[in-house]
Write a structure and sequence with these properties.
heterodimer, A: alpha+beta, three-stranded antiparallel beta sheet, two-stranded antiparallel sheet, 6 strands, B: alpha+beta, disordered N terminus
Chain lengths: ~90, ~140
Amino acid sequence: MAGPRFVADPPEAVRTVAIETLTALYHRPSGTTHILAPPAPQILEALAGRPGDADALLRRMEERFDLASDDAPNAVAARLAELEAAGLVRRA
Amino acid sequence: MSASDDSSPAKEGFAPSRRTMLALGAAAASTVVTIRPAFANTAVSVLNCQIPVPSPDQAGNYIAADGSVVPPGTPGAFPPAPRPLTGEEVKALLHNGPTPAGLDADAAQAYVKYIGRLHAGTSGFTCFASLQMPR
C-alpha cells in the first residue's frame, strides 16, 4: 500500500507538556495549542521531520511499542486524518 | 478506546521488557482537541485575509520548491506570487484543492510550503494560523 506520505514538524517547532496520560502541545508554527491523547503524541514523534506513509509509520512505532489494535491500518489512518485536520501533520 | 490486548501466548512472556503497550484506538475515537484562540472566531475575515509570498521585507526574492526564500533567479525556484494569496486560496491549497487562478501549479505548491514555514511575527502568519483552526 503506497498511501500518502505525512510529515510532522520537527521537535523544536512544538512545545509539549505531559498532563498525566494526556499531552498538551503548543504548535509554534500555527500558534495553536492542542490536547492530545495517545497515540497522537507518539505518531507526531515518529513523523517529526521524517516523512513516511502509514506503513512506514506503523513500522517505526512497532520498533518502540507493542501496538494494540484490532485494525491497525484503519486506526492509523484515522489518527493521521485527525492530526492532519488539526494542522499537526501535513502531506509530504 | 478498545485496547484489545494480545491474548495469544506471549512471544516474550512476562520477561522484563522496555517496550510499552500502545493502543492505537478505534477508528472512530478522537485523540486531538484543539484549543481555539479568540481570533479564530473571526471566521469571515479568515477567508479574506491575505498572505504575501514572500513577505514584503523579502519582496523580489524567489521561492524554492521547498518553500525557502532564495535570491531572484535561483534555478528551480519560482518568482514571487504576482499578488498576495487569500486565506481561502491557501486553505484550498492546503487541502490539495485547485491551484488559484493566475498561478502556476508547481509555484503554488512552493508558495504553500513557504506559507507553512511562516512563524509568529512574519507577515501573513496570523492569517495562516487562523486557517489551521478546524472548523
